[in-house]
Amino acid sequence: MDLNPAQVLPDASWLMKMQAQALPECLAFRTRHRADVAFIVTMAGRIIQMQSGFAMLESAYAQPNNAANIMMKNLLDLCIGVLAFYIFGYTIAFGETEDVGIADAGFDLAHWFCCFSYATTAATINSGALAGRVAFFPYLALSTMMTGLVYPISARLVWGGGWLQQMGFVDFAGSATVHLVGAVSALVSTMICGPRIGRFPEYRAWRKPLSWIFGEKHNDQYYRVPEDPVEKKVFIPFRRCRHPVQLLFGTFLLLVGFLAFNPASTFSITDGNDLVMAHASATTLLAAAGAGVGGVTTARNGTARLTGMAYSMARTRSSVVRVPELTNAVIGGLVASCACCTVIPLPIAPLVGLIASLLTLSVEELLVYVQVDDAVGAVAAHGPSGAWGTIAVSLFAQKHCGAGNSEVVGIFFGGGTDGWKHLGIQTLGVLILTGISLGFTYVIVMLVDFLFGFRCSRACELIGLDFWEHQFDDGSLQTNNDKATLFGLAQMRADLSRRNRHLDSVVPKKWRSPAKSYMDVTASENSSSSEVFPVPHPHPVNVANEKDVHGDKATIQKLAKKVEDLEHKISLLTVGMLRDRSKTTEDICGTGNRFSRDVSEESPVAPVRTTKSDRM
């Protein structure tokens, strides 16, 4: 029996028939075939499930006292991001093509749902790169702006009727629009935030003029392995990966998620798009396979080499396949497949993945060499691979059954002059999207850092973000006296800072970072401390009775001198408390030790001086 395609495929009258059967209040929402709606919603749900894969992968790299913080950030990426995307992100990205306004998802809710799943993927790349030292709420501010502003602007240019789309730029599932944008944002954020304490034993902080560009606040010693006895006992030495099984499991979750990420961009399985979906799924899997083979690292005589698995096994009988390199290589291949999965032939897909894996591992080594602390390799896995996958469209696109864009023909398949022209368009698109992500992220992070403080305090980082940010105590605070000592010192310094806060209203010197007030530390010192240093009146200067007090330079200089004397008294009091309690004089709040001159030779630890010359 011959099968008539017209009987199984929806024709031009299918929408009319469904509208006739639908309830009156549902007529406006019936913009797609039932099968298409079910397909989009199912795929989008699987893409959102990739957040669990990212969380597993990132927490596998994190120190034990930061693992819950990673999970919390990924969960709130989703919760806060969906609100930002609903209120203004979707309107920015697709306001013209979907005819939507502020806080309006339009009639095509399946499209809105799927587009948000891409937005949250772009935002979560920052989470892994900044793991272990970024403050919680400032990170959420960056994530919200990524989901609601930076990604939607990029999506508008590429998919929402923007000028890149009109020029012929092709990025089927977001190699550049999602992954490259997220990776560039993560790179900028990481360079501003700085590395984790102890990540690079010989780290050198930014020198001028880079210290001005990236807002460097600390000297070299701040980022190196702690020398203070108490901090040494609390400090957890750096390890590349702490949970390899968890890392592999997270990679498997991401692999399955990408098999929904790429096919979902068809937004349909009717009208022949089922063939496009099948082709995208096959090329995605083949690209991951090619990346896995190409991403194996052989280690022999202490030297690591990037090489293919088959070559390494033939080269030597003793080969070591390291887990982090393999997983990052596979992710790099998956990222590269996003842009070209519907236009490249199947035999080319493993080659695309292979080249992506080599780029990923090479850039990862380069970042380590220049001492940029990408905690999970997110920048290397999503950045160069995203750019390469976008360029690969111009090189390997071929007309075939299931092609997502039959007008594009690659240079290696007879594209000729048009192929070279399209290569220029793809390259321009990569540069434009890179610039958008770089510029917006820099402004956002620097503004957040100025207002709230982007990086957490030194005590927070050493004790762990799980306890400091989320009050999760695994019992070590009671059993580990050194950790309790460090935490008690942090409480004391925060309390002294609060008691001196009113002075800033008299002579404002520098914006006080609210990041140091995340925890509601117990106020009040004992009575003896209060007698030594009585708290001044909250309003030592009656501004109303002073004539032009802020304009009188002499008055301001006198007030500044009083503030300096008060700070000196606070320093003396603090040193006395530290000696009484056998605590260190190291400034654990990350603000620089301003009272090191008052420490006598009997002090058990020589303080670390933070001088102007150290930052030059």
TrEMBL record:
Keyword tRNA processing: no
Single GO molecular function: ammonium channel activity
Keyword Membrane attached: yes
Annotated spans, Disordered: 589-616
Keywords, alphabetical: Ammonia transport, Membrane, Transmembrane, Transmembrane helix, Transport
Transmembrane segments annotated in the record for this chain: 75-94, 109-129, 136-159, 179-198, 245-264, 276-299, 430-454
Localization, UniProt: Membrane
Signal sequence region: none
Membrane topology summary: Multi-pass membrane protein
Biological process, per Gene Ontology: ammonium homeostasis
Annotated GO CC locations: plasma membrane
UniProt-listed PROSITE patterns: AMMONIUM_TRANSP
Ammonium transporter AmtB-like domain ranges (all copies): 38-201, 247-471
Family membership noted in the UniProt record: Belongs to the ammonia transporter channel (TC 1.A.11.2) family.
Name of the featured protein: Ammonium transporter
UniProt organism field: Cladocopium goreaui
